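Dear Dr. L.,

I hope this message finds you well. Following up on our conversation about the binding site, I have prepared a predicted three-dimensional model of the protein together with farnesyl diphosphate. For your records, I am including the exact sequence and ligand specification that went into the calculation, followed by the structure tokens. Please feel free to forward this to your student if that is useful.
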Amino acid sequence: MTVLDDNELERVPRHVAIIMDGNGRWAKARGLPRLAGHRAGTENLKPIIEACVEFGIEILTIWAFSTENWRRPETEVKGLLRILQKMIRRELRELHKQGVRLRHLGYLDHLPERLQKQVCEAVELTRNNERLILNVAFDYGGRAEIVDAVRRIITDGVPPGEVDEALLSSYMYTAGQPDPDLIIRTSGEMRTSGFMLWQSAYAEYYVTPTFWPDFDREELHAALIAYKQRDRRFGGLKDDCGSPPDLKAGAGDGRARPARGPEVPNADPHA
Ligand code: FPP
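The resulting structure of the complex is given below.
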């Protein structure tokens, strides 16, 4: 079993977000229907959540259904809705017992009414838990989130002069949370697909060819080690890490990120 030693624990990301990709290809490789891949992907959540708690990660965001996924065949869409329903029904008590706080990112109102109610109840039941925040992005799109935020800012009558980055952050689904430090994408695709478009400005990316159902704690550990070796400058310089505090802080919570890390030369001036 992999355990992070003290040195490794020094720079554990506070917020890890995962694009859980490759369920379909995992299933195809085994001659199984796509939904079998989604079910295997769901089974994989439990050990990964446990590993996050153990490694000291504070927030885990998982992308389970995009605003574009409605275009998939009806059987697959219905299957994914059923998976969410089952997950809440079967796992909620255990997650609550483990101190996991559930949050939903995305549209609620396109989901069947009963499912909307279940999601709201799960969020309400776990609202005071502090061990790990689990953001489930379901019917989520990064552009849609920004459009949503702008609409609400206008509806709230905010004067243009008061619109700044902190205000925008406070209108995102992740309001009050630090931005993701590390975004993992499984199955090797080199694109963001608009995941956490606003919040990912300074996130580190880790892409692995492993399909999501096979992504295990060893792979998570490898991602954390890779993250630790990155040189995060938030647009500033290496010596003073001199970025303005509003950029370095988790946009949502105003808390500065730790400016620790190895002095590794980095050739990318935009990093
Ligand atoms: C992408 O793989 C994955 C999804 C669209 C669904 C992810 C959902 C789960 C892992 C189940 C967890 C569900 C909940 C409700 C928490 P893909 O189907 O696009 O794979 P492919 O690119 O190989 O076809």
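In brief: Residues 74-97 form the longest helix (24 residues).

With kind regards,
A. P.
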